[in-house]
Amino acid sequence: MTDQIERVASALEWMEAHLVEPLTHEQVARRAGMSRYHFHRVFRALTGETIGAYLRRRRMSHAAFELVGTRRPIVEIAFDAQFESQEAFTRAFRAQFETTPARMRATGHVGTRVALRLTLADLEHRQEGVTMEPQYKDVGALTLIGLGLQVEDDGPKPNPEISALWSRFFERIDAIRGKKGTAHYGVCLPQHADLPRGNGEGFVYLASTAVEPGTPAPEGMMRVELAPAHYAVFTHRGPLQRMGKTISYIWGTWLPAQGIKPTGPDFGYYDERFRPDTHPGSENSELDFYIPV
After folding, report:
1. pLDDT confidence of residue 17
2. Are 111 and 150 members of one domain?
C-alpha cells in the first residue's frame, strides 16, 4: 500500500501543477505508472472520490482563492477552471460553495467548502487519522450551555480565537449547573440571538457542555437547544494540529461526493478519548464530528 500511496501522491502533485490545463485520466494514470482502470480504483480507495470529481473541486477551489486573493476578471478565472463560459462556471461554483463568484469576492472569505490540495501526508492521514466512512447515530434533543464566538469562515485551518474561547470556557465551567456527563461540545451554528451577525460568510462557534433541560445559562454565557437529529459521525485520530485534514475531508470530499447538505448545526464531541496536543498521548487522541444528515 505504501508504494501505491506514493504513486498517487506523485500524480496529485503533477495534477496541481497543471490545474489550469486540460487533463485526461490517461495522462494522470501514466504519471502514477498505472493503467487508467487500476489507477481509478486505487485513487478512489485512497481519496474517497473519483479523479474527475477531485479535479473539478480542486479547480473550483483554486478559482475561489483567485477570486478572493486577486482582482482578475471572473471570466478569466472561469477559463482557467476549464469552463467555456462564465455562466457555466457560476452555476458550478454555486453548486459547490452555495454562493456566487461575485459574492465570495465581495466577502473576502473562501469558507469551509474549499477542497485543499491533497499531499502524501493527507493520504496517510486518511488511512489512519479519520474514518473514511461514518457511522450513523440518532441523537435526542440536547441542551447546551457555554461561551460563543462569531467566527469569520476562512476554511479548514486552526483558529486561535476558538482555542482561546475554550480556555475561557474552562475557566468558567464550574458556574454551569445541571451538567449531564463530562463530555464537551464544540457547536457550529449559522447564528445566535446573543451575538451580532458578522459581515462575511461566518458562523457562531459554541464551546459548551450538556445540561438538564431548562437549566438557565450563567451571566455572559449562551444556551443552545438542538433538536433530535440523525447524524453521520466521523472520528478524528491524532493531535488537533491535524484536525484541518479531517475537516477538509468531511466538508470538501465526503459531503459533496454524497450530495448531502447538513440539515442543522454540526458539532465536535470531546469525551474521555480526547487528549490536548500538550498531552503526551495526543497521537492517540480521538474526537468525533457529528454532521446532521
Report:
1. 95
2. no
